[in-house]
Amino acid sequence: MYLCTVKKALAILALGIYLFGATEAYQLLKLPLFIKHYVTHRGENNQLSVADFIKIHYLDPLVIDDDFDQDMKLPFKTHESDGCTITAISLPTERMVIDIPFTAPLPATNFFFREVNYSFDHLPTIFQPPRLV
Question: pTM for the full model?
Answer without folding.
Answer: 0.52
